[in-house]
Amino acid sequence: DTEVTQTPKHLVMGMTNKKSLKCEQHMGHRAMYWYKQKAKKPPELMFVYSYEKLSINESVPSRFSPECPNSSLLNLHLHALQPEDSALYLCASSRIQGRGSEAFFGQGTRLTVV
Amino acid sequence: AQSVTQPDIHITVSEGASLELRCNYSYGATPYLFWYVQSPGQGLQLLLKYFSGDTLVQGIKGFEAEFKRSQSSFNLRKPSVHWSDAAEYFCAVGALFGNQFYFGTGTSLTVIP
């Protein structure tokens, strides 16, 4: 199983809502990532978890809150988002962080903030 | 500083024609290099990767890439393009520590009949 599963596939939320994005992998990978991707742009790294601990936070606004409950799951909690936060949010995992370990990406959650 | 450059923003090729997508990298040590493909609204799929050894790497869907250290390049090639190859292609360099990937800006491929 080389899948990274993201739910939901699409999400529309108001600026006062609270929602969560979920990501799951069963490949035994110990590094998991959140990326944000705007149209026609490369993915931008948001967060990296390594062995369930937050390893990298790329100066992401606090309205995005990641959580890694266990080695297979990664959540991204959203609160008080802005319309400019509308994007494709991609989850990825790799065997370990760094050392050229290739990342496997999920299909993404298309988020629209209204 | 690490960086990846994809000089071609958009490329159009005819179905059945050959394809080469360019990628140049800047990295202080031996790089780990990747090519990913992304269809519209989808996630990224790994086409191939280079860590060490043979500089010509074979990937999925008939793609190959050649690592040239002297030119700091890792160009992606396919001898005969299919209409289903139309997508966005990202070159990436992997870090030994820290941030996992440095993505290039991407090349959008259009395939015409």
Description:
The complex is a heterodimer of chains A (114) and B (113). Chain A has no helices and eleven strands. Chain A is mainly β. With 113 residues, chain B is an all-beta fold. In chain B, the strands form three sheets. In chain B, strands 2, 5, 6, 10, 11 and 12 form a six-stranded mixed beta sheet that branches. Chain B has a four-stranded antiparallel beta sheet with strand order 3-9-8-7, with no helix packed on it. In chain B, strands 1-4 form a two-stranded antiparallel sheet. The mean pLDDT of chain B is 91. The interface between A and B is medium-sized, with 29 and 26 residues.
SSE topology:
The complex is a heterodimer of chains A (114) and B (113).
Chain A: E1 4-7, E2 10-13, E3 18-25, E4 31-37, E5 44-50, E6 53-57, E7 64-70, E8 73-79, E9 87-94, E10 104-105, E11 109-113
Parallel strand pairs in A: 2-11
Antiparallel strand pairs in A: 1-3, 3-8, 4-5, 4-9, 5-6, 7-8, 9-10, 9-11
Chain B: E1 3-5, E2 10-14, E3 19-21, E4 24-26, E5 32-38, E6 44-50, E7 56-58, E8 64-68, E9 73-78, E10 87-94, E11 101-103, E12 107-112
Parallel strand pairs in B: 2-12
Antiparallel strand pairs in B: 1-4, 3-9, 5-6, 5-10, 7-8, 8-9, 10-11, 10-12
Q: What value does the average pLDDT of chain B take?
A: 91
- Report the uncertain regions of chain B: none
Give the proportion of residues in helices of chain A.
Answer: under 10%
Average pLDDT figure of chain A: 93
Q: Profile the largest sheet of chain B.
A: 6 strands, mixed
Which value, in Å, is the CA radius of gyration of chain A? 13 Å
What global shape of chain A is seen? globular
Q: Describe the sheet with the most strands of chain A.
A: 7 strands, mixed
Beta fraction of chain B: over 45%
Indicate the low-confidence ranges of chain A by residue numbers.
none
Most extensive chain-chain interface = A-B, 29 and 26 residues
Q: List the total number of helices of chain A.
A: 0
Distance between the termini of chain B: 41 Å
Share in helix of chain B:
under 10%
C-alpha termini separation of chain A: 36 Å
Q: Could you say which structural class the secondary elements and strand pairing of chain A correspond to?
A: mainly beta
Number of E strands of chain A: 11
Strand content of chain A: over 45%
